[in-house]
Design brief:
CATH class of the largest domain: Alpha Beta
Order of helices and strands: EHHEHEEEHEEEEHEEHEHEHH
Largest sheet: 7 strands, mixed
Shape: globular
Distance between the termini: 12 Å
CATH topology of the largest domain: Rossmann fold
Number of helices: 9
Number of domains: 2
Strand content: 15-25%
Length: 270
């Protein structure tokens, strides 16, 4: 294979998933053909492992690595755990009790294989109808704190999230990793957890690094991955803050048009 890349890395929402929140048929065929050519396939997403495993079930891959919860967990497609990094329970307990405007913001957590939320939000259901992954409504002040891969606040606007972000930074400086998967979603992981760090650990075990990879993303939670990859491609529909932060990175088409698959077909002459 003349191409310089050893692996393909892709985010899901706004990137590999189309506007119907599933992997299109052309994308499935493209990923399968890449795997047959010998490329390693990495999915790197803020979604939960259980969710992603279901989304990937239509891809006939013998092997793929799923980096989920923004890098807090990594597993094989069959479910073998390769890496995990949880938020300390004492910090989780404090985060569960942070004050916020409950009419405009909701709190979520990924813990183990489950998703918890403080209030029913019907609009969220459309994003998970293809995987069947769904939240449980709980009172976080009485909820357990173990195996928290990430917590996240979803709001109507970023202005609702900025005070929460600032408060968390004041309370837990150098103890947590904060990022945005979209302008309306503030995500919190243990310190040092990001897609790029987990990918680097996994790739070192395979004998190469991110410089040997082509990566695709659309959110601020992709910034380290896109910066360190041999080629980091940004979606046309990406968060404007990502485009501003990485002005030299190539911008490709829109996720609704399966732009990642078309780009890969051209790059690898499929």
């Amino acid at each position: 294979m003349a191409n310089q890349f050893r692996a393909v890395i892709s985010d899901l929402d706004g990137t590999l998933l189309n506007h119907k929140q599933h992997i299109g048929d052309f994308t499935v065929k493209t990923v399968e053909r890449l795997a047959k050519k010998g490329l390693d396939i990495f999915i790197a997403t803020g979604r939960s492992f259980v969710d992603v495993k279901q989304l990937m079930k239509n891809c006939s891959l013998e092997e793929a690595i799923l980096v989920t919860s923004n890098g807090a967990r990594a597993s094989t497609l069959t479910g073998q755990l390769l890496y995990s990094n949880y938020i300390p329970e004492d910090i989780v307990n404090e985060l569960f009790r942070l004050p916020f405007e409950r009419t405009r913001v909701c709190l979520n957590s990924y813990q183990g294989d489950e998703w918890f939320i403080n209030v029913d939000v019907a609009a969220l259901r459309q994003y998970y109808e293809h995987s069947g992954f769904m939240y449980n409504v709980v009172n976080f002040e009485r909820h357990h704190t173990n195996q928290a891969e990430k917590l996240f606040f979803i709001a109507q606007t970023i202005d609702d999230l900025l005070p929460i972000e600032q408060k968390i930074k004041q309370l837990f400086a150098n103890q947590l990793q904060l990022t945005y998967s979209s302008p309306q979603c503030l995500e919190i992981m243990n310190y040092g957890v990001c897609k790029a760090n987990t990918l680097s650990t996994l790739m070192n075990n395979k004998g190469y690094n991110l410089a040997h990879c082509i990566a695709f993303g659309d959110g601020l939670n992709d910034i380290e991955m896109l910066t360190q990859a041999g080629r980091g491609c940004i979606m046309e529909n990406a968060d404007p803050r990502l485009k501003q932060a990485l002005p030299s990175n190539e911008i490709i088409g829109n996720h609704k048009d399966e732009a990642v698959a078309y780009y890969l077909c051209k790059e690898f002459e499929l």
